[in-house]
Design brief:
With 305 residues, the chain is an alpha/beta fold. It has two domains: 181 residues, 3-Layer(aba) Sandwich (Rossmann fold), CATH 3.40.50.720; 111 residues, N-(1-d-carboxylethyl)-l-norvaline Dehydrogenase, domain 2. 31% of the residues are buried.
Amino acid sequence: MSAHASAHASAHTSTPVTLIGLGSMGRALAGAYLDAGHPATVWNRSPERAAPLVDQGAVHQPDIAAAVAASPLVVACLSTYDATMRSLEPASAALAGRTLVTLNSGTPAGARETAGWAAARGARFLDGAVKNVPAAVGKPDTLLYYSGDRAVFDEYAATLRVLGGDTVHLGTDVDLAALYESAVGATLLPALLGFFEGAALITARGLEARTMVRYSVKWLEMIAAILPGLAAEIDSGDYTEPASSVGLFHDAIGYEDQTGTEAGIDLSWHEPMNDLLRRAVAEGHRDHSISALVEVLRKQPGRVA
């Protein structure tokens, strides 16, 4: 290793980090920094959560202003932007000259508000999202994305990459991470509900849910494989060469109802999706690709497009 590279690695390793919020994800973040050799200060409203991290070498600081003052980089992993601002308000003076990174849930508007709040207190700001479960934090293929000042991201990129090897800067608009978090995260609950529905069908027959996992994984891999093509249709606005048409899904509505009735399963969560299909057919999309549902989603019922 060259002298320059050695000095850079040393600077990266020695960057102190303060972690605010020690839920399951916050503890995983703190653990990753400790494992990578970073001095870590931790704060949580319930201080007992800090004990295992102290055993690993973290410094528990019960005063949030002192916790913020301990490090140039402050990573907040609380529930929402509002919770982050409320918790950090007593540390307002200590934030001046530091970098605040938020990894919480919320809306693009919340990210913009928090960025303004941080700037008013003299702090630089990045918003981000961890796109995996706590157990995956620190692994080479774990995705985290950030938005905000590129110079700030570049300064701390190596330190942020400790949390996941697939670390991305989405752009300088500070709300992009929250926007992508909402857009990408929209897939999660419907996908899980689909799996839970399948598990209810399987177990209603006395079979075990685990017997369908391999096939569900294959199905999800197929869905992943077709996403680029669907995205290309959406970006071009051309839905005229469908692999699967709106009509195909629309005509299956009755069969789903029969299956649910026979198994005694509540499929009422399908109704909003079925309504989208009916609206798409009414708007002339029957023979178009299923990706044409984007055009229906862009129009709220009862509002002029």
